[in-house]
Write a structure and sequence with these properties.
The chain is mostly helical. The protein has six helices and two strands; from the N terminus they run αβαααααβ.
Amino acid sequence: MGKTTITSFFAAAVAASFALAGCGSEYTIVNRSSVRPSSSSQIAARGLVGEAPAVTEHLAQAYEVYTAQITLLKQRRNKVRARERGLRGAVIGTLTAGSAAAVMVGATAEGTEEDRIQGASFVAMGTIAVALGLSHVRGEQEDPIIPDMKARQLQKDFERMLDRVKELEAEGAASTGDPLLDASRKKTMNSEISTVIEAFITEATAINIKG
């Protein structure tokens, strides 16, 4: 293996390792307009807030947005973990293969002993360069704990939203004995419920998840 070939090989390897740094830099954003409440979500919503069509549809959409975001966050976490394992393995593999290559060049390469030593040294330096490049890329990757933390926070926000919706629904269902007043209170509570649901959807769709 000539020096030119070795140089080209390590240069390409280093370039490829740094190119990996850009992996996952794009973001996935849930498009609210594409989220359509499923029949199961609508049934669950009716179980919480009765048969008010506008409110149940709104809550069902919140279920779908929540499910979509949680799924994306879990996928992101798994992807980051897999990439981290891959880069760690690549560093170990590079060092192992480079060490073996350096020994082979030093022992079997053509030329004088000095040429073999120089060749082995060159391979060793190239191996270290590639390993450092991969280590740098690994260090630049997103920590898997970040999507996990986002998922936990999203779950807490969702549960808090549901609790508030139940409270408002209970307030709206309480009877005062005055049909007109009860209808007015029910309308007000439904409006507040929709506000709470909309706030959750807005916050949930604002989460940018790396691809």
